[in-house]
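Q: My labmate handed me this sequence with no annotations at all. I'd like to see what the chain might look like in three dimensions before we decide whether it's worth expressing. Could you predict it?
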Amino acid sequence: MGLSNLSAGVRQYLVVTGNYWAFTLTDGALRMLVVLHFHALGYSPLEIALLFLFYEFFGVVTNLVGGWLGARIGLNRTMNIGLGFQIIALSMLLVPPPWLTVIWVMAAQALSGIAKDLNKMSAKSAIKLLVPDEAQGTLYKWVALLTGSKNALKGVGFFMGGALLAALGFTGAVGAMTLGLVLVFISSLMLLKKDLGRAKNKPKFRQMLSKSRAINVLSAARMFLFGARDVWFVVALPVFLSQALGWSHLWVGSFLAAWVIGYGIVQSIAPRITGRNKGQGPGRTAAIGWASALALVPALIALGLGHPELGVILLLGGLMLFGVLFAINSSLHSYLIVSYADADGVSLDVGFYYMANAMGRLIGTVLSGWLFQVYGLTVCLWVSAAFIALAALLSFGLPKTRQTPASAPVP
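A: Here is what I predict for the chain of 411 residues:
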């Protein structure tokens, strides 16, 4: 069946998903390029973490302001603005190598952080508008597919970053990604519906902060959940694999790519794992249970690292288990925020939630560099376990049953 025979909603979903996929490839590749390239130049783990400081900080600001902006001007515009900013960020890294100072790279990463969160907020918000409110099972499935496929492609991006760095060098790799994203940007301008996600009642700037208890609680849990991942995954793990185990850039990139691809696949099938009863999605009990199970994994890995003969095997095996359980937790949270959000001005609620997500990533990224440099990987893992335990405790504050949104979704 051709694209012309599909419904308008499905065609828009495909355009949104295609944009998200293309952006994710460059985002994952760029992160791996920066980590490996600057580690090879002799930067310490903390210095590498600081390169991403503005990336994560501006993600916090962007999600808060971006949700309000999307409700006022439409999600098509915020998504295209995100693509445009990523092109500028990549272009900033095409300067001669002597210009690639810490401040310059941090500035480029700041633009990339704005771009990423505008793109993600737009994509996640758009799904709410394309699925009827009574079809919660379908909503869970669509959110899981979008999130899972995005993360699988982020893994491909990690591999692509390591491979392009080995084949083309830093400048050549960035140039190739810039050219590809320009083509996607042009297609998006032509295909994306112009009034997607624009609120009927223009929200005031002061309405950026959520007034929903469910969204506030879920946002706090999300912050600790993603802080728990990034506190050992962003800087500590790739540097540990390269420094302590002697893995090459290509091996590090390939391994982390395989992990993220597997993580994305599990996210995509999370509805089958957690179950969907009578078309309804999961709720508070599932969020508490899956977070509690996840908290045990980094604690067990940390204990295992104390045994040199088994440490590496337990680290790699535990990382696989962590990926499966984290993917389920992330997919549950991604469904719950879209489900709880008010359909009129959905990007306000989703933007606030992903602001908390970005805050968790910011905290985790900085702690990853500092804790690994001062204390090592084991302490990073214990902090990860504590953060996840806090996310599980916070989940007790979620509604026992799903709350009906105040507004029906736009057809």
